[in-house]
Specification:
5-stranded antiparallel sheet, 2 helices, 10 strands, mainly beta
Length: about 180
């Protein structure tokens, strides 16, 4: 089920407390939090595809490069886990590929999992992934962010990306969830 609705920044700001999404780099850290197990199949496909196309990865962990942005919330007795996947099999749309492009983000697969009373329900959508590390020891520029907010009162997860302190064009998403 693909869900997502693009709204204006003003509409998203209502009832939202924006949070930075944490970054997991599976090339640098082999541990995957249990909350992100919804990506295990895609991670395995990514490893296979990378090895077939480029050979064994030369990363710290021996895994293919995969970046996951994520954040979790607690609300109404539920845990809400929001994550965005960037890897070779993700087919992320990075926009124009030219030196004139100012786009720093990519539109990638996203998953929102609501865990309540021992049951998990995952909604699949897309979201903008921003804040790419500049190298193995260099984090992303502080001006590039992937942000998420939970509007528990209205049962919505809101996502956006910003660059240089401004909301990235076309990156506002609001996804209805059952809490």
């Amino acid at each position: 089920l693909l869900a997502g609705l693009t709204l204006s920044g003003a509409a998203l700001a209502q009832n939202a407390r924006w949070q930075d999404m944490a970054l997991i780099d599976l090339g640098a850290s082999a541990s995957l939090p249990a909350e992100l197990s919804v990506w295990e199949e895609m991670i395995a496909r990514n490893d296979q595809k990378f090895k077939a196309d480029f050979g064994a990865p030369k990363t710290k962990t021996g895994r293919s490069p995969v970046l996951i942005r994520w954040h979790s919330f607690e609300a109404n007795g539920a845990k809400v886990v929001v994550s965005i996947f960037h890897g070779i099999v993700a087919n992320c749309d990075g926009g124009a590929n030219s030196n004139a492009s100012e786009q720093t983000w990519a539109t990638c697969p996203a998953r929102i999992t609501v865990i309540k009373d021992g049951q998990a329900k995952t909604t699949q959508t897309t979201a903008c992934f921003n804040g790419f590390p500049l190298g193995p020891t260099m984090p992303a520029p502080a001006s590039e962010k992937t942000l998420v907010a939970l509007d528990a009162a209205n049962g919505r997860v809101q996502l956006k990306a910003s660059t240089n302190g401004k909301d990235a064009s076309g990156c506002a998403r609001s996804v209805k969830i059952a809490l």
